[in-house]
């Protein structure tokens, strides 16, 4: 035969713990869960119209409304073709949503550097929390047919191809082979049509 008292004793400690927890959360203060002045339209007595000074802060008042964030745009490193025409924001997001246009200076490897020296357009995109980059270079009306299909300079793989009379070169640590770079090259080529 089972003892019914054993079943009744288990809920009792749970109820006690729940009651103690509720009292601890309210701080044993009567009306702690009651609405405060902040819930009404009237300002509280502690609200002031003067800015609060913080150590190390500037004397300029802080705007109440934050500025809207806009995807930064960067002029090309070289050339006159806008980077937004070379590789769209949607295409960059599809490549990696953590990349954004960048104006960071750095070495332009292989064919990317050669296109920049010839006056082509070079667009730089960088991982927002790291140093990984995506470089895209375009030289319109290219007169050369002598280019490496794929090369590696340091950690970056560089794929270069001629499409629509434009020399397109893309570089990233994400490109281990020409096939890895193919979607970016195809996007750029379709944008130049």
Class of secondary structure makeup: alpha+beta
The main pleated sheet reads as: 6 strands, antiparallel
State the end-to-end distance.
86 Å
Element order: H for helix, E for strand:
HHHHEHEEEEEH
Strand content: 15-25%
Shape: globular
Q: Approximately how much helix is present in the residues?
A: 25-40%
Mean pLDDT: 73
Rg, alpha carbons: 31 Å
User: Any low-confidence stretches, pLDDT <50, length ≥5?
Assistant: 19-48, 65-74
User: Widest sheet: strand order?
Assistant: 1-2-3-6-5-4
- The number of helical elements comes to 6
> What's the β-strand tally?
6
Structure overview:
The chain is an alpha+beta fold and 193 residues long. The chain is 28% helix and 19% strand. The chain is built from six helices and six strands. Strands 1-2-3-6-5-4 form a six-stranded antiparallel β-sheet, sandwiched between helices. A hairpin with a 5-residue loop joins strand 2 and strand 3 (133-140). The longest helix has 16 residues, at 11-26. The chain starts with a helix and ends with a helix.
């Amino acid at each position: 035969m089972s003892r019914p008292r054993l079943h009744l004793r288990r809920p009792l400690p749970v109820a006690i713990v729940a009651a103690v927890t509720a009292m601890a959360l309210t701080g044993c203060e009567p009306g702690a869960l009651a609405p405060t002045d902040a819930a009404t339209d009237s300002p509280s007595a502690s609200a002031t119209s003067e800015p609060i000074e913080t150590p190390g802060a500037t004397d300029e008042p802080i705007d109440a409304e934050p500025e809207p964030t806009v995807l930064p745009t960067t002029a090309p490193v070289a050339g006159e073709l806008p980077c937004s025409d070379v590789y769209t924001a949607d295409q960059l997001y599809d490549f990696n949503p953590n990349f954004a246009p960048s104006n960071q200076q750095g070495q332009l490897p292989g064919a990317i550097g050669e296109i920049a020296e010839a006056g082509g357009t070079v667009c730089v995109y960088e991982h927002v929390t790291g140093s990984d980059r995506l470089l895209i270079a375009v030289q319109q009306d290219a007169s050369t047919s002598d280019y490496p299909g794929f090369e590696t300079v340091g950690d970056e793989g560089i794929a270069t191809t001629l499409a629509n009379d434009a020399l397109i070169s893309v570089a990233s640590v994400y490109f281990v082979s020409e096939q890895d770079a193919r979607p970016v090259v195809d996007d750029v080529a379709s944008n130049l049509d």
